[in-house]
């Protein structure tokens, strides 16, 4: 039989949209699905942001808000954590950016299974609806903490122990089904639908990050699925997978012999790779933003790829560093502390390489670049505190204090969100065909960047004092000085300012979509394929009649002897314009770069 | 290994690494469904592996009573399970033959193979339900012991995967009724047959696991360091 590569198959008969419904609602176009994913994820993310504001109100000004009782507080904590990690970050990085960037960056017309891709979004939306429904059921959403540890997660006394926890577990299971459908698409598309000339090692780092993160997700989410199924059975049918013999509310329960620690192992076998499911796409995308806006090839491309692959592999053998105080065998702690410190090596290589990419680069301080540089700060900061917590002896006193809260928010909250903003500001002109307002973008950056430091830096100090996390109110204690409350109040004020400042971003997006300056096809002078499409935004099928052919890697910036300071991946060697011999250096002459040429 | 060779490429050098690279390769592994299936089988393996690990660790708790080993335990005589296993094996073989006949464009062979595969698969599923009923009749309820819980859980998850397989098989067969394309049929049946063989293998492992005696579990647990 004659074989036609997926990328070359004409798709007219398969899913060329005709009506509004098939074009924008039941769409099988990866770009529309990406936008659907992104809008949904950002919407639930805003819900979670409001929840964090409510939590901070209670912590900063205890007993001032009658509607925040302890139950409500725990429900806010739980829903904030779960939504941010899974329904916002995972969905936005992989469902949003993964969907948008993979086919465009590798030169394909669409994902290889467009129908499955559409299904993935609608099942994700179902998961979100089930999760949101838990706000409206009797007892409200679960307040078990985002880790959902049994036995307390399913016992009376924990908020939402009746309906909330069941909806949470069901929603997670549905999400995993959605992710699996999307994830199979992403990996298969990367492996099977690349354009001619696009070797794996010519792929932009964004695609590498998303690709490896998707593999991690496909292998790690089953652990969450398994634990969700078993906990649901414990809750609904009364099995004893995780539930020990227990007396609850003065009553002997029917459970016996189960192991809560087993749940913790399963949960973190998912939970730690999850950190990298979020971080690896962020690493990849920030690399592309930095290289493009520094007009310089990424420093150590191969190391960057190796680091992504190494981090992906190592991320499966560090999970128990979340469990040093769980009562597991102390020898485990030694092993997991060692692997945790080893994973810091490839991560540090990446940070060095970003910095070295900036070094002597022709840095354009655009909004995406500012967020990318901000990310290097916040990520280094959060990573360094990770080294503290990765060591058992240092972790024991700091465990369950605000130091941990500060650490994981810096490394996995603020840092990926900095990259998300960098990515949104970077790709917005391609996605929408409009420019964002640069002034508003920069204002948004400064409030967010400085504001997050005002929020999280003092939390490290609170942690050193021993202020415990997860407490509704600490009341009077001997070891916490009264000044800690002043610090808490200032954190709350900063958090609310940062939260409200996100309205700048939302206003900017909506305003620019309607009245923004029209974007040219390649405003940043980027080399990767998505900027070389015939139309901006790209039409269905992405490439018009002919697929691009790739002639070079993704980082030919400021090539000596070339006229322009970038050479697109699909430009053949003979088509590259040479600089005139009398020019002392390779200036960019399209007037886009007032800073001039690199030194 | 080609993976390491790939990672060692130097993409910044002009006209070296993969300058003539092209994915238009008629080799069978270029069928995207095959790649997706490989990943999917990987995911399903992880699911069963994790269930198995939790099972093995749960066997070491004092309240665990294995379902075989002593004369009064239900699976000391596992005849019904052996019969079910034979059914699944025959389903797997039938599907394999159907795929071969499809490649040879032998329509009656394909129909016989497919019908046999579906009948044997349903036989297996109903056989498993019969085992559930037997266990229930003997008082081995889902909640009365973790060994029972795991038996119901494992067989249910495995059965659901088979039902999913049947739905996928329908998606291969139904278009054939109208378009009679042996090419599409062969492609689909190749994937289904791989999936059936895989689920048969998983079942064999589960069968061994669920009908072992306490001593076996203890030995495995010692070897695994539980």
What attributes characterize this protein structure?
heterodimer; A: 599 residues; mainly alpha; two-stranded antiparallel sheet; 15 helices; 60% helix; 1% strand; globular; disordered C terminus; B: 226 residues; Four Helix Bundle (Hemerythrin (Met), subunit A); 7 helices; flat
Kindly describe this structure.
Chain A has helices at residues 12-15, 20-25, 30-60, 70-106, 114-133, 164-192, 205-236, 260-293, 301-314, 330-358, 367-390, 392-398, 402-432, 438-465, 483-515, and strands spanning 247-248, 251-252. With 599 residues, chain A is mainly α. In chain A, a hairpin with a 2-residue loop joins strand 1 and strand 2 (251-252). In chain A, helix 4 (70-106) packs parallel to helix 6, helix 8 crosses helix 13 (402-432) and helix 9 packs antiparallel against helix 10. The longest helix of chain A is centred in the N-terminal third of the chain and has 37 residues, at 70-106. The radius of gyration of chain A is 25 Å and the shape is globular. Chain A starts with 11 loop residues before the first helix and ends in an 84-residue tail after the last helix. Chain B has 7 helices and no strands. In chain B, helix 5 (146-179) packs antiparallel against helix 6 (182-210). Chain B is flat and about 60 Å long. At the A-B interface, helix 6, helix 7, helix 8 and helix 9 of A face helix 2 and helix 5 of B.
């Amino acid at each position: 039989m004659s074989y036609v590569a997926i990328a070359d198959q004409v798709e007219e008969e398969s899913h060329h949209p005709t009506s509004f419904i098939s074009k924008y609602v039941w769409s099988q176009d990866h770009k529309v699905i990406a936008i659907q994913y992104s809008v949904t994820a950002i919407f639930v993310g805003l819900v979670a942001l409001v929840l964090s504001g409510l939590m901070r109100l209670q912590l900063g000004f205890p007993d001032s808000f009658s509607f925040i009782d302890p139950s409500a507080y725990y429900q806010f904590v739980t829903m904030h954590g779960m939504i941010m990690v899974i329904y916002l970050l995972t969905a936005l990085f992989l469902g949003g950016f993964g969907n948008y960037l993979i086919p465009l960056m590798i030169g394909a017309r669409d994902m290889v299974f467009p129908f499955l891709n559409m299904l993935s979004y609608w099942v994700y939306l179902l998961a979100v609806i089930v999760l949101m429904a838990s706000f409206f059921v009797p007892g409200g959403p679960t307040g078990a903490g985002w880790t959902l540890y049994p036995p307390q997660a399913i016992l009376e006394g924990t908020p939402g122990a009746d309906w909330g926890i069941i909806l949470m577990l069901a929603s997670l299971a549905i999400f995993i089904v959605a992710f699996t459908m999307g994830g199979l698409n992403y990996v298969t598309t990367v492996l099977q639908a690349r354009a001619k000339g696009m070797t794996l090692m010519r792929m932009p780092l964004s695609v590498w990050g998303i690709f490896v993160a998707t593999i991690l997700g496909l292998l790690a989410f089953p652990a969450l699925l398994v634990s969700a199924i078993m906990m649901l059975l414990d809750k609904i049918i009364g099995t004893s997978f995780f539930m020990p013999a227990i007396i609850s509310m003065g009553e002997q329960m029917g459970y016996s012999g189960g192991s809560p620690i087993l749940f913790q192992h399963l949960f973190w076998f998912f939970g730690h790779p999850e950190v990298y499911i979020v971080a690896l796409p962020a690493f990849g995308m920030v690399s592309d933003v930095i290289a493009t806006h520094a007009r310089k090839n990424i420093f150590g491309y191969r190391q960057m790829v190796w680091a992504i692959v190494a981090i992906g592999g190592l991320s499966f053998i560090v999970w128990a560093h979340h469990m040093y105080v769980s009562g597991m065998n102390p020898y485990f702690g030694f092993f997991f502390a060692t692997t945790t410190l080893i994973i810091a090596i490839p991560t540090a290589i990446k940070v060095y390489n970003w910095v070295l990419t900036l070094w002597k680069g022709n840095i354009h301080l655009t909004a995406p670049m500012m967020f990318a540089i901000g990310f290097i700060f916040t990520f280094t900061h959060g990573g360094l505190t990770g080294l503290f917590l990765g060591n058992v002896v240092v972790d024991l006193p700091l465990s369950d204090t605000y130091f941990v809260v500060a650490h994981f928010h810096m490394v996995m909250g603020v840092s990926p969100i900095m990259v998300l903003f960098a990515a949104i500001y970077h790709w917005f002109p391609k996605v929408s065909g409009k420019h964002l307002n640069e002034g508003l973008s920069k204002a948004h950056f400064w409030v967010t960047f400085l504001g997050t430091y005002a929020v999280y830096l003092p939390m490290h100090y609170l942690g050193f004092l021993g202020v415990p996390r997860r407490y509704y109110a600490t009341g009077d204690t001997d070891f916490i000085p009264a000044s800690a409350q002043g610090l808490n109040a200032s954190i709350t004020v900063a958090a609310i300012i940062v939260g409200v400042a996100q309205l700048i971003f939302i206003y900017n997006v909506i305003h620019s979509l309607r009245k923004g300056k029209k974007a040219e096809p390649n405003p940043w002078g980027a080399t990767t394929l998505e900027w070389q499409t015939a139309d901006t935004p790209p039409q269905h099928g992405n490439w018009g009649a002919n697929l691009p052919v790739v002639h070079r890697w993704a980082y030919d910036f400021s090539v000596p002897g070339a006229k322009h300071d970038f050479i697109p991946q699909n430009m053949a060697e003979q088509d590259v314009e040479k600089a005139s011999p009398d020019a002392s250096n390779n200036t960019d002459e399209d007037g886009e770069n007032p800073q001039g040429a690199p030194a | 290994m080609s993976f390491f060779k790939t990672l060692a490429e130097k993409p910044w050098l002009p006209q070296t690494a993969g300058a003539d690279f092209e994915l238009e390769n008629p080799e069978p592994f270029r069928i995207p469904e095959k790649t997706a299936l490989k990943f999917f089988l990987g995911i399903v393996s992880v699911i069963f592996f994790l269930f198995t690990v939790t099972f093995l660790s749960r066997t070491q708790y004092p309240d665990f009573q294995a379902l075989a080993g002593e004369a009064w335990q239900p699976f000391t005589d596992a005849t019904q399970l052996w019969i079910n296993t034979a059914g699944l094996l025959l389903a797997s073989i039938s599907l394999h033959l159907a795929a071969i006949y499809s490649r040879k464009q032998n329509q009656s062979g394909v129909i016989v193979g497919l019908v046999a595969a579906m009948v044997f698969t349903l036989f297996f599923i109903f056989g498993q339900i019969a085992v559930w009923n037997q266990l229930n009749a003997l008082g081995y309820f889902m909640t009365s012991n973790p060994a029972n819980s795991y038996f119901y859980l494992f067989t249910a998850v495995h059965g659901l995967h088979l039902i999913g397989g049947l739905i996928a098989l329908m998606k291969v067969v139904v278009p054939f009724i109208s378009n009679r394309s042996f090419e599409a049929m062969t492609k689909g049946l190749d994937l289904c047959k791989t999936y059936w063989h895989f689920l048969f293998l998983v079942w064999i492992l589960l069968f061994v696991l669920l009908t072992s005696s306490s001593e076996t579990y203890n030995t495995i647990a010692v070897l695994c360091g539980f």
